[in-house]
Amino acid sequence: MNELVAAAKAEFDRAKARMVNALNSTPDEKINWSPSPTSRTPVEIVVHSALGTSGLQGWIAAGMPAEGFDPVAIDAGSREAESKVKTREEAFAMLDDASTKFHGWLDSLTEDDLAKVHQSPFGPFPMTAAMTIPADHIRGHVAQIDYIQTIHGDHTWR
Predict the structure, then answer these.
(1) Which residues face 125 on adjacent strands?
(2) Please, which residues bridge with residue 120 across strands?
(3) Residue 155: what pLDDT?
């Protein structure tokens, strides 16, 4: 296995483990609570991360095109799907499925794929950097779960 692929997989797995730990350390009565009507619950955050992993994988694999990249529409679709999931088990199953598929995709990358530089809406983006975006996405959302725990007095939870 390519060293960069192995590193991306390990980075992703560390981010995923942090997310699983964050939700597992959230009390049952708080997993479907959010601090405001427009905020995600901890379960929704995990589902969002699973959907985001799949979506980002597809977008990166397609060359990170600007066409059709509509963050507002993407968020609306994600929120609709997220709102249907209410248990840790469902959320973790979605995250596991997305993770397995992401790992498989990383394993399928060739040396030529890894050498590509995509022209993204954010400018040139080397594949070797792009393939770490899903881990970054998850880490950002772990911080949201951590913040929700802070709101409720996390010192008594752990």
Answers:
(1) 118
(2) 123
(3) 64
